[in-house]
Design a protein that fits this description.
alpha/beta; 336 residues; five-stranded antiparallel beta sheet
């Protein structure tokens, strides 16, 4: 068996590779540093040079240099927390995104919903793992209500409870995402069956975790077809994908919206609004509706910024072409 088989190689990637030059080598990026990266090939893991890639990318190599990046099947993209329209790719070609929710810290449902929206927007399938159930407890029913249509598993890496149940819901390349201290690396080690990923204790003062994981790295899970992607803790999660991602994360609100009298209902004060009626009846919380509105606004703002950047790039390109033409005409005029 080729080393690539342990890192998610399937017929899709073989077909994509066959479209390119056969004088290159097929590889998958397992870790990225500045200007360099580790990639697994048929011969094992090699050190290469190249930029513009992300952990999880399938690439081709030419003498340990990046030759091309195969089109991504999925990508976990976080919008910039600042005023720019830039995005950060957290992981590429991921099939399952596990959102970790720690039992030993205060439950932030808004953050859980944000992570789930990020996961749906990637094109992967989200799964929620409630971690550290041996040292705390959260209201599982609240998490279930914030994650309609998503599998929610309670786990403990200490006694191993829930790990088999969680594993049953995982497919392909599995990314662990969540805030620092939510038990991602510890859960990852439980899935890997050993102390492969570095872990650290949370701060006793506020229960927040230290950034033990400092880079994204792919690790095959033994005796399975799964590949694990551990990621650093995220302090902020900007949403930028599509309204479909928000609709998937808030499928309960989206189903209610379809019953509104007006197709363009904003769910504010419109007559015949099924969403507001559900809030009044106690079937939907005001908090969840508020976060739904917030993520839609945030997504719309991010997309408008992206459209503005595209227009700016087109204008810059047009100006460069115009300048080149003026220079050409000036030279041609002098030759006459």
């Amino acid at each position: 068996m080729s080393p690539l088989d342990h890192y998610g190689l399937d017929q899709h990637w073989l077909t994509e590779f066959e479209k390119l030059s056969q004088r290159t080598t097929l590889a998958r990026v397992v870790r990225v540093d500045r200007g360099e990266f580790d990639a697994v090939t048929d011969s094992g893991i090699v050190r290469c040079t190249g930029t513009g890639i992300c952990t999880g990318d399938w690439v081709t190599l030419d003498s340990f240099r990046l030759a091309a990046t195969l089109p991504r099947r999925t990508a976990i993209e976080r919008a910039s927390a600042g005023s720019t329209s830039d995005t950060q790719v957290l992981g590429a070609n991921v099939d399952t995104v596990v959102v970790t929710v720690a039992s030993d810290t205060a439950l932030d449902l808004g953050r859980v919903e944000r992570y789930i929206t990020l996961a749906w927007g990637s094109g992967a399938v989200p799964v929620v793992a409630i971690t550290k159930t041996d040292s705390g407890s959260v209201a599982e029913e609240l998490v279930l209500a914030a994650a309609p249509g998503v599998e929610v598993c309670t786990t403990s890496a200490v006694d191993g409870s829930g790990i088999d149940s969680l594993t049953a819901h995982l497919r392909g390349t599995v990314a662990l995402i969540g805030p620092s201290g939510s038990g991602k690396s510890t859960l990852g080690n439980a899935l890997l069956g050993g102390s492969v990923l570095e872990t650290g204790a949370t701060r006793s003062a506020d229960g927040k975790g230290r950034h033990t994981t400092v880079r994204r790295e792919l690790v095959p899970i033994p005796s399975s077809a799964l590949v694990l992607l551990d990621t650093p803790g995220l302090r902020s999660v900007g949403v930028q994908g599509s309204e479909d991602a928000v609709a998937s994360a808030f499928s309960d609100v989206d189903e209610l919206a379809a019953l509104c009298r007006f197709g363009d209902c904003a769910h504010e004060h419109e007559p015949g609004c099924a969403v507001i009626a559900a809030v009044d009846a106690g079937e939907l919380t005001e908090r969840r509706l508020g976060n739904y509105r917030k993520l839609l606004r945030e997504n719309a703002w991010a997309m408008s910024r992206q459209d503005a950047r595209v227009r700016s790039e087109k204008l810059r390109e047009y100006k460069q072409i115009s300048k080149s033409l003026r220079v050409k005409y000036a030279v041609d005029g002098r030759k006459r």
